[in-house]
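Backbone geometry:

***
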Amino acid sequence: MATNVSYTAHARTDLDGNLIAADEPLAGFHRRSGGDLPGPLVTPALIQLVRKSRDLGLRLSRPIMAQDDREQITAWIEVSPGDEGTSIAIANWQAQPLAEDIGTADAAHRNAIARQMSELALRLGPHQEVLAVLQASGDLRKIADTIRGRLGEAWTQFVELKGNAHKQPLHWRLLDGAKLELDGSDRQWTVFLIPFGRLEPGSDGFELHLVADEPENAEQPSDKGHETVTRPGIGEDIAPVLRQPVSRIIANAETIRTQLAGPLADEYSNYAKDISSAGEHLLSLIDDLTTLEAVEDEEFTAAAEAVDLADVARRAAGILRVRAKERGITIDAPKNGEAVPATGEFRRVLQILLNLLGNAIRYTPEGSDVWIRSEVFEGRASVTVADMGEGLDEAEQSKVFAKFERLGRSGDGGSGLGLYISRRLAQAMDGSLTVESAKGQGARFTLELPAGEGDG
């Protein structure tokens, strides 16, 4: 359909999606966003439009919105595919300084969708080195186990980036939104990188989420051979089937709620928020039930590894620091250089501490503190998470670790399984999980494990 748009700037890409020529203001925006000229496109909205135009073989035009660290831009873009790449025409380029609240809202929306759609999540350090593997499902079990065995290496060592032969790891902006392939999976994956750091994005590390372009095939061959299964298991059979559609419901509800698809009456926006919240609760319940099935299996065991409780506590604090900041809560974690060697399974210890710290952030008053302390005493290593919440009386303390026990709380998104699972995990590592509390005096949850070598 013909238009009367007057294009004021032009650009070109090659067949691999690299930007090989660009007029201002696109050239400057591209470089500020971490790109090189020539080099791969780094603006997600433009990447999607170019890819779609090339895949369909059609000229496409639409408005796009994007932002860098300084400004938010809107523009009308027309992309035309050709034998050597695509031609890009730009009109009505509008830029405005990035207001902190607008930027925060957009980033929070994108990050929320990435977290909910993620099937493999990694916590990375400032140099994109893997610190922790937070979750894995379905056809990603093999690569997740591989990464867990090689913590400290750059995450790009474990994946194959499509159409990218540059030295790794690249600048994180070039990797955000990249397509990749994973060993053991037939699906295509998209990278979402969430940077942390007050002075420079990424200076405090990253969250990395891998999102599949299609759901996992529920009919993939089982690795149980010809064994007869009398009932479906939550973890291996049901969870993968449920997780993808629930995640997409959440993502679509968030798109509606934030009105990215167009203006919406307040009551419908609130309705979408309720759908998103309900979906998040269901997804959390699926994950809890998956873990519950595992810890209640008679053959469940935990690895006996060398674990530094102080280090794991710092990692848990780093992972949840953004959530704490949203409520004005300060996390006082063990200081750098402090070490408390213990024996346990790293990912299970991290899982327990994330649950304890997440509960503390949820129930402690806004603007207060949560602190984590670790120590060794008489051959046992321990880490304690303490909050300033309303506390628990003796009757509540006796029930707090029970299955599905929520102590009368409602509407907080919890399943009542977190502490029960955490105690089972602690026991599987020859440890314990206990609570000390009193009404009006907060709560102190302590994970205790066998001390590691070198504790004296």
